[in-house]
TrEMBL record:
Species this chain originates from: Comamonas sediminis
Entry-annotated residues carrying O-(pantetheine 4'-phosphoryl)serine: S39
Annotated protein name in UniProt: Acyl carrier protein
Alphabetical UniProt keywords: Cytoplasm, Fatty acid biosynthesis, Fatty acid metabolism, Lipid biosynthesis, Lipid metabolism, Phosphopantetheine, Phosphoprotein
Subcellular location field: Cytoplasm
Length: 86
Protein backbone atom coordinates (compact mmCIF):
# COMPACT_ATOMS: atom_id res chain seq x y z
CA UNK A 1 0.00 0.00 0.00
CA UNK A 2 1.32 3.43 -0.93
CA UNK A 3 1.59 6.39 1.43
CA UNK A 4 -0.89 8.39 -0.66
CA UNK A 5 -3.50 5.64 -0.26
CA UNK A 6 -2.96 5.60 3.50
CA UNK A 7 -3.21 9.40 3.62
CA UNK A 8 -6.49 9.39 1.68
CA UNK A 9 -7.90 6.74 4.01
CA UNK A 10 -6.96 8.81 7.08
CA UNK A 11 -8.53 11.93 5.58
CA UNK A 12 -11.74 10.00 4.93
CA UNK A 13 -11.85 8.68 8.52
CA UNK A 14 -11.18 12.11 10.02
CA UNK A 15 -13.81 13.72 7.81
CA UNK A 16 -16.53 11.10 8.23
CA UNK A 17 -16.05 10.05 11.86
CA UNK A 18 -14.58 13.12 13.52
CA UNK A 19 -16.37 15.81 11.49
CA UNK A 20 -13.10 17.46 10.50
CA UNK A 21 -13.36 19.25 7.18
CA UNK A 22 -11.10 17.65 4.59
CA UNK A 23 -9.69 21.10 3.74
CA UNK A 24 -8.23 21.33 7.29
CA UNK A 25 -6.45 17.99 6.95
CA UNK A 26 -2.95 18.31 5.55
CA UNK A 27 0.14 16.15 6.07
CA UNK A 28 1.58 18.89 8.31
CA UNK A 29 -1.59 19.27 10.42
CA UNK A 30 -0.91 18.53 14.07
CA UNK A 31 -3.49 16.12 15.45
CA UNK A 32 -3.96 17.82 18.82
CA UNK A 33 -3.26 21.47 18.04
CA UNK A 34 -4.72 21.81 14.55
CA UNK A 35 -7.37 19.09 14.39
CA UNK A 36 -8.47 18.91 18.05
CA UNK A 37 -7.81 15.16 18.28
CA UNK A 38 -7.48 14.33 21.98
CA UNK A 39 -6.16 11.10 23.47
CA UNK A 40 -9.57 9.40 23.41
CA UNK A 41 -10.05 10.39 19.77
CA UNK A 42 -6.56 9.10 19.00
CA UNK A 43 -7.44 5.67 20.40
CA UNK A 44 -10.64 5.67 18.35
CA UNK A 45 -8.63 6.62 15.25
CA UNK A 46 -6.21 3.74 15.83
CA UNK A 47 -9.13 1.31 16.20
CA UNK A 48 -10.57 2.54 12.90
CA UNK A 49 -7.20 2.19 11.17
CA UNK A 50 -6.74 -1.44 12.27
CA UNK A 51 -8.63 -2.90 9.27
CA UNK A 52 -6.31 -0.99 6.95
CA UNK A 53 -3.28 -2.74 8.42
CA UNK A 54 -5.00 -6.08 8.91
CA UNK A 55 -3.43 -6.78 12.28
CA UNK A 56 -3.26 -5.48 15.81
CA UNK A 57 -1.72 -2.03 16.03
CA UNK A 58 1.03 -1.59 18.57
CA UNK A 59 0.50 1.57 20.61
CA UNK A 60 4.29 1.99 20.76
CA UNK A 61 4.33 2.69 17.03
CA UNK A 62 2.14 5.74 17.63
CA UNK A 63 3.81 7.28 20.70
CA UNK A 64 5.80 9.81 18.67
CA UNK A 65 2.96 10.60 16.28
CA UNK A 66 2.13 14.31 16.21
CA UNK A 67 1.01 15.08 12.66
CA UNK A 68 -1.12 13.43 10.00
CA UNK A 69 2.09 12.60 8.11
CA UNK A 70 3.45 10.87 11.24
CA UNK A 71 0.35 8.64 11.22
CA UNK A 72 0.85 7.90 7.51
CA UNK A 73 4.51 7.01 8.08
CA UNK A 74 3.77 4.78 11.09
CA UNK A 75 1.03 2.92 9.21
CA UNK A 76 3.19 2.59 6.11
CA UNK A 77 5.91 0.90 8.16
CA UNK A 78 3.38 -1.45 9.80
CA UNK A 79 1.71 -2.36 6.51
CA UNK A 80 5.00 -3.03 4.79
CA UNK A 81 7.03 -4.63 7.60
CA UNK A 82 5.96 -8.15 6.64
CA UNK A 83 7.15 -7.58 3.08
CA UNK A 84 10.45 -6.16 4.32
CA UNK A 85 11.02 -9.13 6.62
CA UNK A 86 10.60 -11.58 3.75
Amino acid sequence: MKKQEIYEHIVRILDENFSIEAARITPEARLYDDLDIDSIDAVDLIVQLKPLVGKRLNAEAFKSVRTVQDVVDALYLLVNEDQQAA
